[in-house]
Amino acid sequence: MRKWHSRRDNRKIHRWGAIIVALPFLIVIITGLLLQVKKEVEWVQPPTMEVEIDTLSLSFEDILLISTTVPEAEIKNWEGINRLDVRPDKGIVKVRSENHWELQINLQTGEIVHSALRRSDMIEQLHDGSWFHESAKLWIFLPAGIIVLIMWVTGIYLFFVPVFAKRARAK
To answer: What is the fold, at CATH topology level, of the domain defined by 46-118?
Structure first.
C-alpha cells in the first residue's frame, strides 16, 4: 500500500473531480445564473402584471373556461393546468399549463392581461437534474455536488499549503 502524499494526492482528487463533474456542474452553473435573473429577464419568466380591481369575482370554472381560449396553453380541462398562482394584491391569477405556458388573468374582468412561455420551471428542472430523469437528481447531480464540495476542500488546501510552507521557511 502506498503512502498518502497530501499535495500530490489532493491535486489528483481535484483534477479528476473536475473531469467527473464538468458537464453536470456546467449545467448547474448556467441554469443557476439564469434563475438568479429570472425576475429581470422576460425570456426566463414573464413579468407579473398588476391591475386595479374592486372584487375578486372569478370562479374556478371561469378561470378554466378563459384558459381554454388560448391555443398555445393547450388547456382543455383541469389536467392541462399545472398550478394556479392567485395574486389578489396584484389583481391577477397566474395559470401555469402543463406545457409551461403562463396566462395572467384579471381576477375581476376575466381579461387575459399577459400570455407567454414560462421557461423558469424548465430551467429549475435542468438545474436539479429532474428534467433528464427523476433519478438523475440523486444519482448524478447529488454526487456531482458532493464532488464539488470535496474539490472546494482540496482547492482550499492546495491554496494554503504554499502559504503556510513559505511562512514556516521564513521563521
So the answer is: Thrombin, subunit H (2.40.10)
